Amino acid sequence: MRPRRVDWREWAPLTLLTLAVLAGAGLWFGGRRGVAELVWAAVTLVALLPAAWTTVRQLWRRQFGVDVIAVLALVGALLVREYLAGAVIAVMVATGQGLEDYAQRRASRDLRALLERAPRQARRRTPDGDIEVVPLDRVAVGDRLVVGPGDVVPVDGTVEEAATLDESVVTGESQLVTRAAGEQVASGVVNAGAGFGLRARKSAAESTYAGIVRLAEEATARKAPMVRLADRYAAAFVPFTLLVAGVAWAVSGEFLRAVAVLVVATPCPLLLATPIAIVSGLSRVARRGVLVRDGGSLELLGRARTLLMDKTGTLTAGRPRAAETVVAPGGDRDEVLRLAASVEQLSPHVLAAALVRQARAQGLRLTEPAEVTEEPGHGVTGRVDGRLVRVGQLAGEPPEWAHRVRERAELAGRSTVWVSDDHGPLGAILLEDPVRPDARRTVRRLRESGLDRLVMVTGDRPRTARQVAQTVGVDDVWAQCTPQQKVARVQEESGRAVTVMVGDGVNDAPALAEAHVGVAMGATGATASADVADAVLTVDRLDRLADAVEIARYARRIAVQSATVGMALAVVAMVAAAVGKLPPVAGAFLQEGIDVLVIVNALRALRGGLRHRDVPPRTRELLDRYAGEHDGVREVLDRLRDTADLMATRPDAPESLPALREVHRRLVDEVLPHEAAEERHLYPALAGPLGSGEATSTMSRAHVEIGRLVDRIGGHLAQHPDGRLRRDELPDLLAALYGLDAVLRLHMAQEEEDYFSLNPEDGQTPAGR
């Protein structure tokens, strides 16, 4: 966005009034005091007329504000012929208004940027291959569009070829991202590379950016409750000021003292510092990828004590992934996944997308299926390489190994997709909705920011809900809740404290509307939730909610501080004026200084308040690198678990020992080098962001334990080069295998939650994590 040019007309009233006051001073010192007083009187009158008109209109609308004191002070200055004091008051009022306008322009520039970048038209391909420019409202779902270099993506869509995008306006992430053909992109992002084709998924009115723009328009148009709070201050402050002025006049018999009290009590710009702080907070949370609907919502967010969160899409990634593939005895894991993904390529089901995504991530070659049929609720059937494959529910009586798979899936809270052919089940793919890597860290930060009670509300099964709740560390969990029950829970909590509700689905919309502050995970495209929410996370990172809470509390604290300190200083000055120690002219200059002080203090809300530490670019690169390597480690872990199960159930099978030797080889060649590299490079780099090198000491201890268990498995193999294991060795070997599986999984989860979630550029939860 190009820099904004200064419009001198915005500062013209203050400039002209200041020049007039200085001209009067020049005349005064030049010996023409009568003319100087006329100039100052004119300045006072020029300021009085619009202020009086504004005050009359407010009183007509039954609004009682602090402008009343400014009007009385100007009138009093004219009556007692303290024209210089009146002129200084006029400059003070203009200065306050000018500073308010400047602060609001600066604080809301990010919100304005969203409005300014809103696309108005799109390039659309015609059926005969030409390109036409059409108004945005004429773009329909399915249209093929062209996005040129530097263009703003007009609607939500699917890219037709690789594209390099700047998503900072929508997500807050500064790093350019590359989207491959077939990936979805949100409207509002900027094409930072060559032109590309886009297939529209939504109309302009339903797209992501349109919803963000609507929120931005409302955020800039509404008035913060802190402004109304200032008016409530006026209800007590104005009578108090008049009382002090009246007492000073009555006791001393000097009307001049009453005018002096009114002069120092003129707090028009003073109480404008509170909305400046709130609007500054709105701007900052917008830069962090959280668009708050208005200042009132931000102020409530800063007072919140209870947070209710949906599970799916909020604490979890919101899209299932293939966590484990279990095969029939003697089966091939990769072949089972390949067959399932090949059949599911044509299915629109969310589970089908998870299978296809996992197979492609593992580099498996998919085959185009034939004779595909889909029966809702039962699964998909098709031929792959001439072989009939069924993916979905398991028909008939399952074999013994399938019973164990079902029990494992139930205990782990995972969904099961069975893969079968004409001869029976070939294997099962266990799907899970993984907890967001940043969820536990975010929950801790939310507690540190002042939220006393964190509750998970979900429609999922109690066992799965409890597992997620224990993982992220919330205080309570309500499972199997219908949308109506979610609303009832929100109402119950809202009766005790200011409550925030976070969700992403259509079923969350009523609960979001009921909460004091509803927050929608807008990056997932949940339009219904975003439309009723008071705030939208435009980036798919839950930790940005913690940022928003911290910024909201900081902005509210600065607002209250500015009002309190400014009012206290004004009261001290009023007392001094009442006893005759502060004449009107000196009081006017003093009040000017007080007002400027508190407004500048309010601008502090544009910075500070966040608790997290910045991560250096080199450390970000290391976090990206080792987070990506976790996919490979997980694949070895799956082999490890299968081998352990094989050794536990069929230790004498011909394939048992070869499988054990292969998994040990991969542990030595792939997993241990990964752990050693983390120890040498990543952990020392994290000492700064985490505060000290001791922060990674427990992870280093886990590396030692992982190496010990791998050596223990290798020791069993080295003792028996003939390929035979004694029965009495099996318990110790199985303890090492299952122990290594548990330690490695816990170690990886801790790294992802405590370390990898530090990376601010990691805007998405990868499918493989």
Tell me what you see in this structure.
The structure is a single chain. The chain is an alpha+beta fold and 769 residues long. The chain has four domains: 8-109 and 219-281 and 553-606, no CATH class; 120-203, Calcium-transporting ATPase, cytoplasmic transduction domain A (Distorted Sandwich), CATH 2.70.150.10; 321-432, Calcium-transporting ATPase, cytoplasmic domain N (3-Layer(aba) Sandwich); 617-758, Up-down Bundle (Four Helix Bundle (Hemerythrin (Met), subunit A)), CATH 1.20.120. It is built from 27 helices and 22 strands. The chain has a seven-stranded mixed beta sheet, with helices on both faces. The chain has a six-stranded antiparallel beta sheet with strand order 2-1-3-9-4-7, with no helix packed on it. A six-stranded antiparallel beta sheet has the order 12-17-16-15-14-13. Helix 20 links the parallel strand 21 and strand 22. Helix 2 runs antiparallel to helix 3 (67-79), helix 8 (225-252) packs antiparallel against helix 9 (255-264) and helix 21 runs antiparallel to helix 22. The longest helix has 36 residues, at 543-578. The radius of gyration is 34 Å and the shape is elongated.
